[in-house]
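Field log, afternoon session.

UNIT: design team B
ACTIVITY: writing a sequence onto a fixed backbone
BACKBONE:
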């Protein structure tokens, strides 16, 4: 479950910060 949770967080982070990359 931990692995899946991490992947979900990474995915969300990527989508959230993917559109607005903060330098």
């Amino acid at each position: 479950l931990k692995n899946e949770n991490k992947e979900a967080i990474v995915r969300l982070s990527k989508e959230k910060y993917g559109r607005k990359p903060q330098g």
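LOG NOTE: DSSP finds one helix and no strands in the chain.
NEXT ACTIVITY: expression trials, pending approval
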